[in-house]
From TrEMBL:
InterPro entries: HAD-like_hydrolase_sf, HAD-like_sf, HAD-SF_hydro_IA, HAD_2, HAD_sf, PGP-like_dom2, PGPase_prok. It comes from the Bacteria. It comes from Microvirga guangxiensis. The lineage of its organism: Bacteria, Pseudomonadati, Pseudomonadota, Alphaproteobacteria, Hyphomicrobiales. This is Phosphoglycolate phosphatase. The keyword Transit peptide does not apply. The active site is at D10 (nucleophile).
Length: 221
């Protein structure tokens, strides 16, 4: 196995807990539409496949009008992007782990299905942006995870081959995208997975982000 030369991170549910801001924005949209409010667990089960899927799932769960979906997605983005950082926080140990990985000399990337603008706002608000050499959002390319293209685009920018990279995510689409790109995958046991973490197919599970450091240090040497 070739040694590790770069780490790619998922954002929502892996680096940051963004569910409260997503819930609040979804609920503003649903209130405008006269639909019922969603609770945090319902919203968590809808996060992961990008903003359009989140709105589609929210509208379907509350009996809204699916034929107006594209207007509702546009309105949701307006609401969410105006206030994406109010409650969103990095998970414990994330900044320290990113700093540790940089000290090992590894370039880092974010590959998320969240729109690029909100991704940058969140990384900047939390003081994390400077750790990353490449950031690919859900609207950067026509394809999103579980398609491998966003991961391959990030690696292209870093100049790193897939077999020398590791993806860290919280959801099935992170592991599937990594495997389709020929990249190794580790999954966190927190976040918003749509199925049990043990079934995601990752080579390792970690309960907290700092557990990544010894794994990477071993594999980078
Ligand atoms: O915004 C989403 O639905 C998910 O984003 P993620 O790819 O960072 O988990
Ligand atoms: Mg995620």
């Amino acid at each position: 196995m070739s040694s590790l030369k770069a780490i790619i991170f998922d954002l929502d549910g892996t680096l940051v807990d963004s569910a409260c801001d997503l819930r609040d924005a979804v609920n503003v949209l649903l209130a405008e539409e006269g639909l019922r409010q969603l609770d945090l667990d319902e919203v968590k089960s809808m996060i992961g496949d990008g903003a359009a899927k989140l709105v589609e799932r929210a509208v379907s769960a509350t009996g809204g009008d699916q034929s107006r979906l594209s207007a509702l997605v546009a309105r949701f983005l307006q609401i969410y992007e105006a206030d994406a950082t109010r409650h969103t926080q990095a998970y414990p140990g994330v900044p320290e782990t990113l700093a540790g990985l940089r000290r090992l000399g590894l370039p880092l990337a974010v590959v998320t299905n969240k729109p690029y603008g909100a991704t940058i706002d969140i990384l900047e608000a939390l003081g994390l942006r400077a750790y990353f050499d490449a950031i690919v959002g859900g609207d950067t390319l026509p394809e999103r995870k579980p398609h491998p293209a966003p991961i391959l685009a990030a690696l292209g920018r870093l100049g790193i081959a897939p077999e020398a990279a590791l993806m860290v995510g919280d959801n099935y689409h992170d592991v599937q995208a990594a495997q389709a790109a020929g990249v190794r995958a580790v999954a966190v046991t927190y976040g918003y997975s749509h199925k049990p973490h043990a079934e995601l197919g990752a080579e390792r599970l970690i309960d907290t982000m700092p557990e990544l450091l010894p794994i990477v240090a071993d594999a980078a040497s």
